[in-house]
Specification:
The protein is an alpha/beta fold and about 400 residues long. The strands form two sheets. The chain has a six-stranded parallel sheet, covered by helices on one side. Strands 2-3-1-4 form a four-stranded antiparallel sheet, with helices on both faces. Helix 7 crosses helix 13, helix 8 packs across helix 9 and helix 13 packs across helix 14. The relative contact order is 0.11.
Length: about 400
């Protein structure tokens, strides 16, 4: 019985490869089900964000004994993502983890320790949401439910007990910072358009922009007559219909796009057609798959950033958090130990029931003391010296 993970992230793969695994919510649930029905997994949960796709599975004893478990999972994942049809060997970018390494990795991811921006808070909500989706679809069970709950609890303790998130920076805030640097450190007097302001990342971008003074914000929505959350309503924010976004391009100094659209929100041809004024402009693409066609980066006086380009800014933030990362590692190790104890004990329950039944029979025949002695002798004969030493060290007089 084991927990398996296949991971692809900003640490292992370029943006164009990560795009292949940018599953929609519907596709996540569908793939989880396929991994169970065709892959032999008992449970499955998929985390899909702009920087990573992580596919967690739990296998029971019978399925885990079969050969080539990872190969079977990989084939299904590549098939369902469409990556199997790509000429490049996409499998080179996949990373494989099993059991304790899976636990350590998920805990690190959930706490923001494995993020492009160390300590960012968005991933915690994304992990919780991934579990909720899997539970609603009936694809997660006792083992992955408990693993993810431990990960969330561990992350919350790290955020409470360390300074890791005290100066939290996300990719959304990095987008604003990149735009500021392109204009000499300030966006005062600039026109900024946010495409996808009603989404999670776009909403964070807007909140960061609201904290700056002297700029004019324009955010696109699909229907300007609909009521939206308060965070997109501001005196400095003009709501525009998504279909009219190109009409505003010429007046904009900064355009930030962060949608879940499978298609371009801005194409090079249409931007060039509407961009009649020659002036510096910043385009920031926070989406995977990408929102903004990269040919725009070739336009004169244009600064272009996508998720890969933001890594350099993230590194500066990460270096400042080294001490907090060490403290977080200690907390993570404690939770990792706790979960492994739970899992080992849980999987041993059937065996312990068998031993209990045997001891009851022995006690009935020869007395309880003899049954205990016989159990100790069985442990001595079957355990390795290291296991026996650990067993003896943990024998303590019960508290009265």
């Amino acid at each position: 019985m084991s927990i398996r993970l296949i991971s692809i992230s900003h640490k292992t793969a370029p943006l164009e490869v990560r795009e292949l695994f940018a599953f929609t919510k519907e596709k996540q649930a569908e793939l989880e089900k396929i991994l169970i029905d065709e892959g032999g997994a008992a449970e499955s949960v998929i985390i899909a964000t702009c920087n990573r796709t992580e596919i967690y599975t739990y296998f029971d004893k019978n399925q885990d004994k079969k050969k080539n478990v990872f190969t079977r999972l990989q084939e299904l994942i590549l098939r369902e993502s469409g990556a199997a049809a790509v000429k490049e060997d996409v499998s080179d970018y996949l990373r494989f983890y099993q059991d304790r390494k899976v636990v350590n990795h998920l805990f690190s991811v959930t706490a923001g320790l494995d993020s492009m921006v160390v300590g960012e808070d968005q991933i915690l909500g994304q992990v919780k949401h991934a579990l909720e989706l899997a539970q609603e679809a009936g694809n997660s069970g006792k083992y992955l439910n408990t693993l993810f709950r431990y990960a969330v609890t561990c992350s919350k303790k790290i955020k409470t007990d360390t300074d890791l998130s005290k100066t939290s920076v996300s990719t959304a805030t990095l987008a604003v910072k990149a735009a500021e640097e392109a204009f000499g450190g300030s966006l005062a007097g600039k026109n900024v358009m946010v495409i996808g302001g009603t989404g999670q990342i776009g909403g964070i971008v807007l909140k960061n922009l609201y904290s700056l003074k002297g700029l004019n914000i324009y955010s696109t929505i699909r229907n300007v007559t609909m009521t939206h959350d308060a965070h997109i309503k501001s005196e400095s924010n003009t709501l525009i219909d998504y279909k009219e976004r190109y009409d505003y391009i010429n007046a904009m100094d900064v355009i930030i796009s962060a949608t879940a659209s499978p298609h371009y929100t801005l194409t090079g041809t249409k931007v060039k057609e509407h961009m009649t004024t020659d002036k510096p402009r910043v385009f920031v693409d926070l989406a995977v798959p990408v929102d903004i066609e990269e040919t725009i980066a070739e336009f004169p006086h244009t600064f272009f950033y996508n998720m890969d380009d933001l890594e350099e800014l993230a590194e500066t933030n990460n270096r400042a958090k080294k001490e907090a990362v060490c403290q977080a590692g200690e907390i993570l190790e404690e939770f990792e130990e706790d979960f492994m104890r739970w899992m080992i004990f849980q999987q041993a329950v059937p065996r312990m029931q068998e031993v209990k039944h045997w001891m009851e029979e022995e006690a009935e025949k020869k007395g309880f003391g003899k049954a205990i002695d016989k159990l100790f002798y069985r442990i001595r004969e079957n355990a390795s010296p290291e296991e026996l030493e650990a067993f003896v060290e943990n024998l303590r007089e019960p508290e009265k």
